Amino acid sequence: ECYVQNTAREYAKIYAAEAETLEGFGEVPEIIPVFLVHRPANNIPYATVEEELVGEFVKYSVRDGKEVNFLRRDSEAGQKCCTFQHWVYEKTNGSLLVTDLQGVGMKLTDVGIATLAKGYKGFKGNCSISFIEQFRALHQCNKYCEMLGLKSLQATHQKQRKATPMKSKNLPNSSAIKKTVPKKAREPRDFISSEH
């Protein structure tokens, strides 16, 4: 827990340094530090300690990326959290995603990190790789993404989806598959844009 949150915190510091130089960007989300405390005389010898966050606790993003969250989409803090996710995703070439962003205002805690199966630079996250795939499919850029000059993920995701059926045609056993799969199941589906 400490390693994940403090790793995400380091990314947030770099993001803040880049975003704060932009005119009109304003306040940047901060991931608060979490500390591991050793208590040898206690029945539970280890505990984590962090700053108490006072106020309305909001989940700006969720681990699985499916939940509709208007506070994430419509609030300044929520939009900046989504931009932070996009920024990390782009900076790590799609290998790492900070997710499960939640907290009070711009102070965040208890975050998660998803990495590709092999990890990223020796680091393996605590969330499934499917969170990266869902983020790539569902993220909608906002004005803060544009201010940072981040590339749209929607065009990239649609290109990948269109390329997939082409690859399957080149498989050596594709003729055997065509004989056993009904025609309707083989027709490509259109990408459906989401409001998430």
Automatic annotation (TrEMBL):
Region of interest called Disordered, as start-end residue ranges on this chain: 156-196
PROSITE patterns listed in its UniProt record: ALPHA_KINASE
MF-aspect GO terms: ATP binding; protein serine/threonine kinase activity
Transmembrane among keywords: no
One GO cellular component, as annotated: basolateral plasma membrane
Domain of life: Eukaryota
Entry EC no(s): 2.7.11.1
Record's signal peptide: none
Protein name: Alpha-protein kinase 2
Organism: Phaethon lepturus
